[in-house]
Amino acid sequence: MLELGPGTGVITKAILATGIAPEKLICVEFSPEFVGHLRANYPGVNIIQGDAFNLDDTLSDKRDTVFDSIISGVPLLNFPVHQRVAYIEDLLARLPAGRPVVQLTYGPKSPVPPGLGNYTVEHFDFILRNIPPTQLWIYRRAHAS
Ligand SMILES: C[S@@+](CC[C@H](N)C(=O)[O-])C[C@H]1O[C@@H](n2cnc3c(N)ncnc32)[C@H](O)[C@@H]1O
C-alpha cells in the first residue's frame, strides 16, 4: 500500500491498525520534519522523503511497484486542475484495474473533476470529527487503456 502526504501519521497509524505488515506500507512525505517524526514513530514502514508529484524519481528502485491501493492527503487544491488530473492518472497507473485511489480534501467538491480523464469519481465519506472536517473521494480506472 502507498500513502502520500502522511503528515503527522494519523492515517498511517490507522492503516497499521488494520494489520498490514509495516514493510508492506510505503509513505511519501515532502517535509523532512514530518519524515523524521514518522520514522521515529512507525519503525519498519518505508518512509521516503520526496515529491508525490514525481513518483518515478521519489520511489526510485520501487518505482515499478504495483500497489493494491493508494491513499493521498497531498493538498491538491493548491495545484491547478490539469496537475491534479495528471496526479490521479499517474497513481491509477500504479494500481490494478478497479483498485482505488482515496484522496482527502477539505473542499466540498472532488478536487479532481470528473470527465477530464480515464477515471471515475465517487464520494466516499465525510469525516466530521477530523480537524478540519475532511471529505474522502475515490478514483478508479474507468476502462482499460
Ligand atoms: C493535510 S497534510 C496531511 C495530513 C495527514 N493525513 C495527517 O492526518 O496528519 C498534507 C501533507 O502532505 C504533505 N505534502 C504536501 N505536498 C506534498 C508532495 N508534493 N509530496 C509529498 N507530500 C506532500 C505535507 O507536507 C503534509 O504533511
UniProtKB/TrEMBL annotation:
SUPFAM superfamilies: S-adenosyl-L-methionine-dependent methyltransferases (SSF53335). The keyword Methyltransferase applies. Keywords: Methyltransferase, Transferase. Residues 2-93 form the Methyltransferase domain. Gene3D superfamilies: Vaccinia Virus protein VP39. One of its GO terms (molecular function) is methyltransferase activity. GO terms for biological process: methylation. InterPro entries: Methyltransf_25, SAM-dependent_MTases_sf. This is Phosphatidylethanolamine N-methyltransferase /phosphatidyl-N-methylethanolamine N-methyltransferase. It comes from Aquamicrobium aerolatum DSM 21857.
